[in-house]
Structures are given as structure tokens and as C-alpha cells.
Amino acid sequence: METSISLKHAIEQIVKEKGIDRQVVLEAMEQAVLTAANKKYRNTRDLEAHYNPETGEVELFEFVTVVEEVVDSYKEIDIEEAREVDPDVEIGDSLGEKLDASGFTRIAAQTAKQVIIQKVREAERETIFNEYSDRQWEIITGMVRRFEKGDLLVDLGRAEAVLPSKEQMPREVYRPGDRIRALITDIRMTTKGPQIILSRTHPSMLAKLFEAEVPEVAEGIVEINAVVRDPGSRAKLAVSSNDSDVDPVGACVGMRGARVQNVVSELRGEKIDIIPWSEDIARFACNALSPAQVSKVFVDEDSRALEVIVAEDQLSLAIGKRGQNVSLAARLTGCRIDIKSEAKAAEAELQEFSSYDGTETPGQEFNETDVQEVEQVTEAAASEEKTE
After folding, report:
1. What's the pTM?
2. What is the span of the domain harbouring residue 108?
3. I want to staple 222 with a disulfide (CB 3.0 to 4.6 A). Which of 34, 40, 216, 335 is the partner?
4. What's the CA gap between 16 and 334, in Å, rounded?
């Protein structure tokens, strides 16, 4: 009786403290008794274990099949001997006999404890995996724990995440105990449990920060169409509005630049150009090269290549330091961009014209060109606010 009471108590305690389903605990107990019995009998018998809620015990049963001639005495019984137990039995029936399971109770309790601990871990891992997989591409706040081979381990409360070295911002320094915000980019189930991967360099990190700062973005009035970054240095954000009364650039910049400044502060001073998005690739390219002013654009739609002509004093601004501005603009538009000064373009056109033999159209550098003069492109672009 004492054993049954203690077993009942153990089950109730596990269910209450660990929050595990009662059926899971009972199955673990039954499996533990069955495993111990099979080990003793060397798996020679057909055994089953069942928890009896009335007695509070795990009962063990041995089953034998009724046959005419016994081949395996551990699993079979002949018809005559079987009818001494049950007169109505027929060949092919299964007879069950309850065995003494008291010898397995203590072993079962110890084994069940290990099984239950494992099931608790599995349940917790599954819960964490499901919770965070639903939060992929969200920004989350955690606490820095330690470094491991350059990777940053972050405590998220119920789980631990990894910020790989390649996903960390250049020149950012963290110490254990520091708070950190990062984007959940991936979650994988491993043998050690869920592995949550974070990033502070992903373009979506920038988009999510603006979504948190700008109500119009969160509500879908302003749409972020494209984002490119040189993490820690500079980024370009292309936005559009679904409401003609809402200026998308102004909404993202905020009053006196408050909204964009909050994002810049979070990204440790990363400069952000917010530009109007346009379906017109030439206009979009002019916007993307901001703050440089564009004089003329040649578009080859087939190969998605652009030749951009700028004034001499705008050339270095358009290209940017180490080519950063034109590189970001090319990634933002998805086009190859070649920038020339007006003097270089005029010189190239003169050389091409002088070598013209009448078989080709002079001055046509691409197969198909769409030449847009500064009056057509930059006047419209100039009316739209740009910010660096």
C-alpha cells in the first residue's frame, strides 16, 4: 500500500510541478516497468504494463497464445492446459496472466524519472521552437551572456540565441549583461534543442526598426519597397505611399528627423538615405543616387543597365566614398549603373560620331535606349524630399 501511495504521490507531484500531461507521465511509468521486465526476462516473453488508477500501481501482464502444439513455451500454451484456466478458450486466443511487478517498482520509478525528465526537455524544446518559429523576422531584445569563438550568445529569457560574428555590426562592442536588439532570421531544431539565429546586419532589421518607429508603416499606409545596407556605414530605403495625402519620405523622417534619428541611434550612427520609390526605373535611379543630382539617364531595359550622366561637380558625390553610393543605388534598383561626367560623355559621343561609317545610328551606346533629359527626370525628383 505504501508503494502505491508513494507512486500516486510521485505522479501527482510531477504533473503539478512540471506541468506535463498526466497521460504522458503514466505512459512513462508503464514503459519503465515494461523495460525493466523485458530486461529481466531477456525479451523472451510477450509482456504488457498498465497503470491501475484504483490501486495506484503499474501492473504487469504476460500473454501467451493458445496453440495445438507448443513451439515456444514462453509465448505459447497448448489447448488442454489453456482450458484448465478458461474452459471456453479456442486455438488462436490470447491468455493473459498478471505477474508480480513489485520487484520492478523501484527500478521503474528511477527509470521513469529519467524518461520524464527527457520528456520535459523535449516538450520544452518543442514549445520554444514553436514559439520562436512564429516570431521569425521579428526584432527581439535579449541580454548578452558570453562570447564563443566570436559568436555572441544572447539570453532571451526562455531560450538562448546566437548572434554569429558575420551578423554583428562592425565596431560594435558588447559585454556580458548588456541589452541587445536583433532580428530573428532563422530557428533550427538540433540535438541540443532549438537554435535561434539572430542578425543585426540583415536589411530586414532596418525595415523592422522603421515599422516599429513609424505608425504609417505599421498600418500599411507607407510601404517599404526595397532596403540595402552597408551595415554600420550607410543604407538606402525606398518607400512609397498608398495614400496620396501621406508623404512616405516625410513620414519615415518624422518631425525634425526624430523617427529616422531613433533608427540611426539603434544602428550606432549608420547613415540612412530615405528615397521615394518609383516604377519608372530612370526616375528611381535618380532618386537612388541621392544626394547627387543627375543630368541625364540612358536606360537599357533588356539588360537592366543604366548610363547616368552627371555634372562634373556631382561626379564624386554620385559615386560616393569607395564607390559606396553608386553600389548601394545599383543594389537598390537591381540595375548595373555606369556613371560618367558630362565632359566624359560628350567626349565619348564625339569620338563615336567621328568614327561613324553610316551603318549604325550615331551616339546609340545600347541596343535600345530611353534617353531622359534632366528636365524630365530631375525636376520631378527634386520635388520629392530626400534625406541622407
Report:
1. 0.67
2. 2-132
3. 216
4. 58
